[in-house]
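FAQ: What does a ligand-bound record look like?

Like this one, built around erythose-4-phosphate:
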Amino acid sequence: MQIFLDTASLKEIKELADMIDGVTTNPSLVAKEGGTFHELLKEICGIVPGPVSAEVLSLEPEGMVREARELAKIANNVVVKIPMGLPGMHAVKQLSQEGIATNVTLVFSSTQALWAAKSGATFVSPFVGRIDDRAGDGMDVVDEILEVYGNYGYETEVIVASVRHVRHVVESALLGADIATVPYKVARQLFEHPLTTEGIDQFLKDWKGVQA
Ligand code: E4P
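The answer part, i.e. the structure of the complex:
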């Protein structure tokens, strides 16, 4: 399974650049960093060779397509994030004909994911954490999407998004999701286990004892 970093922070991206397979941003994450959106995106694309998602802000198809064409000019690895909905799917259809990679975002059901795939999306992003927040089961939605895509051989890749904890990543991998996009804190936790830390400390202590 591929791991993307869900952040617009250059500091976080630089620290994990050689480990991650891509980056996803959204307007809230970009706003937190300040500066110019296009310049920040260019810099991120220069650090990470894999796909870097950047979201459009327009709400109608023509505006989305216009913004997407501008974003796609910034770097070869830009993936344009388009919000789910009928206007978004019109835009995705057009962009897929133009060969511009898309990530359909704010997906909360398998029917939405079906439309994304039928429209030619490159990636689809079910938001598992936000589904869980509303007493739903985000991983069940991912499971359904994978089954639907498998039934028809859709090539749209599933990015498990809105990841809140390590267990979301474990379940994504068990279900066979293509990608999980994770916040920095979760990405770091994926490397850690208290028994690893304890084991290293113990080995060093024992070694020092022998040397003494
Ligand atoms: C994904 O592409 C989104 O940027 C992100 O996962 C949203 O996560 P949140 O629900 O924690 O804001």
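Follow-up question: can I read anything off the structure? Yes, for example: The pocket of erythose-4-phosphate is lined by residues 6, 24, 26, 105, 125, 127, 129-130, 161-162, 181 (CB under 6 Å).
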